[in-house]
């Protein structure tokens, strides 16, 4: 029996990775040090990239009753207008991150994933055959657990990263934040402060968090407070008064937590059979949901590659593309969030620059650029141009994730993301095959025949052309990224090289 993949950390990133591996039929053991699921959440919204990633696996439906969609985005709390993009992309979705974690855990268990709580990883060893982790329970007892690989999704202070000897360089900014849920009665003065407010010393936000419950968050620059310092409602209101001069003494604190603004990134995302993802790989100022979207994309990028490796079907070097593709994305998230911090303090110096930015975002091109950056929608992997004509330019869709465009096949209506629900690759032919469900036409048949050897890993879908996708045929990796594309349905181009590159050798007939 195959040793399971061990995942340290049962937050959203760890659970997303567990779902991806479970979908591929790989045994998974999640080790979570908390004894019970986390019911509190610092994050209260997910950005467009997260919505797309969850929709690719049919997971957004389970979250529909936990939140709501709203067409807002921001860059350094300078508000943007996603509706002006004119392309099909989802909006930000307001939902506590704890709900995302819960729904992912439910899906993981349905896929056969084992989740062990009250299990803290305290040491690890690895060799060419696998990884052995020592896990400690709350009563102090320890157990050795074996696995084929170990992935650290255990947060910014990751034990996995430390034990694997992976460096975590970066900067720790002088910053302190408090976030809390305050129970109030109707008409409370806090309702007058709903929204986002920027001041010289920092900022604060007030937002609904439930019936008669408000989420209050403060952020102060040039202030340092130790993480183990006890917090009370008075501390939250003292921070609010330092920022605004407003004194309050209302409501009851249901939950309070510190938050900070370090910027750090793992030097490498892989050390032999140990890998890191999410906050274990990168931490940065949590603006616009970029921390969660970057982490979940790590999980979706890694999941199918690790599954192929465990099952012995990965082409040489596939697992190393995880670091090659995701490390630059993590580095960019660190840079862009630091840029946003620079636009927020000190206000007496950056105020004029914020005014200029506010004018610039009225330009459609600037608004679109920042919406896609803040929403995690602008990531494009630098793929080569396999099977293209000599000297041909790479297709503009290569390396991108398609929006969830509707499709019409011989079997009826579907969409791009419905085709990806199974976690397999998809050869999508849009050359106008019409009604028959079976491939028809010489180009369609040629491409379907080329993919026949990978039928256990890649599905073939034939659909009518659509103006929303600028290609006649595409190969989608399991993470939704375009790995091959042609613009002309009649082009004498085959996806065979791309199939070998990403899915390994074909199955012998």
TrEMBL record:
Q: Does the keyword Flavoprotein apply?
A: yes
**Where exactly are the transmembrane stretches of this chain?**
none
Q: Which residues form the FAD-binding domain?
A: 4-335
Molecular function per GO: FAD binding; oxidoreductase activity, acting on paired donors, with incorporation or reduction of molecular oxygen, NAD(P)H as one donor, and incorporation of one atom of oxygen
Question: What keywords would UniProt list here?
Answer: FAD, Flavoprotein
Name of this chain's protein: Oxygenase
Q: Does the keyword Electron transport apply?
A: no
So which residues are the signal peptide here? none
Instruction: Name its co-factor(s).
Output: FAD
Q: Which SUPFAM superfamilies match?
A: FAD/NAD(P)-binding domain (SSF51905)
UniProt xrefs under InterPro entries: FAD-bd (IPR002938), FAD/NAD-bd_sf (IPR036188), RIFMO-like (IPR050641)
